[in-house]
Amino acid sequence: MKKILLLSDTHSHIDDTILKYVVQADEVWHAGDIGDLVVTDTLKKHKPLRAVYGNIDDAQARLEFPLHNRFICEGVDVWITHIGGYPGKYNSNIRAELLANPPQLFICGHSHILKVQYDKKMNLLHMNPGACGKSGFHQVRTMLRFVIEGDKIKDLEIIEIEKRV
User: Fold this and answer.
1) Would strands 105-107 and 76-81 be described as parallel, antiparallel, or unpaired?
2) For 66, what's the count of Cα atoms within 13 Å in the CB-facing half-sphere?
3) Tens digit of pLDDT for each residue in 83-96?
4) pLDDT bucket at 162, cuts 50 / 70 / 90
5) What is the strand order of the sheet 76-81 is part of?
6) 145: part of which helix (H) or strand (E)?
7) Alpha-carbon distance values, 157 to 4, 82, 98, 117, 145 (Å)
8) In DSSP terms, which residues pair with 128 in a beta bridge?
9) Could you give the 3-state DSSP secondary structure of residue 114?
10) CA distance 102 to 83
């Protein structure tokens, strides 16, 4: 069993509120737009980290993290990328690969809009944790946490950090 904290679009922001949830997780997954690598360095001091770079990330982040991160967690096939789209509207750069070999869990960021949706056609769960940074148009900073046990994804929680001022 693994407790996962999923975040995205930090845009160089890390704070004690985020870290409060980090220490409760077994692993932290970051779906891109990290910003300053101080964010990921801080996360890695507390828990194992899996991350991808996003469209705002610089060359240093792109050297440290991949564009796509596909792996097995417990018994779940996971694919994390930053710009992935949504069920029925997947990004054209990945659509063919996604159709040919869909994961059980597909995670992306980029939109700053929290969305969890089951794609019946592809038989996968799509997650976008929204944005937990302070840059962007989103009004509420959000993250997701859930448990992976064997081949099951369960106990999904939405974490609303704060309304942005």
Assistant:
1) parallel
2) 10
3) 999 999 999 999 99
4) confident
5) 68-73, 76-81, 105-107, 124-129, 114-119
6) strand 140-149
7) 10, 21, 26, 14, 5
8) 115
9) strand
10) 16
Burial of 91 (0-12, 13-18, 19+ CB in 10 A): middle
Q: Are 74 and 151 in contact (CB under 8 A)?
A: yes
Token digits of residue 92? 């054209």
Question: Residue 69's beta-bridge partner residues?
Answer: 80
Cα three-residue angle 152-112-42, rounded to 5 degrees: 75
Looking at the chain, list the stretches that DSSP marks H as alpha helix, in order from N- to C-terminal side: 16-22, 38-46, 59-64, 95-100
Record the tokens describing residue 129, joined without a space. Answer: 């944790």
Tokens of 133: 């940074």
Question: What's the rounded Cα separation, in Å, for the pair 86 and 126?
Answer: 7
Q: How far apart are CA 13 and CA 128, in angstroms?
A: 18
Question: Quick one: pLDDT band at residue 164, thresholds 50, 70, 90?
Answer: low
Secondary structure (DSSP) of 94-134: THHHHHHS--SEEE--SS--EEEEEETTTTEEEEEE---SS
pTM: 0.96
pLDDT tens digits, residue range 102-160? 999 999 999 999 999 999 999 999 999 999 998 888 889 999 999 999 999 999 999 99
Is 18 within 8 Å of 132 (Cβ atoms)?
yes
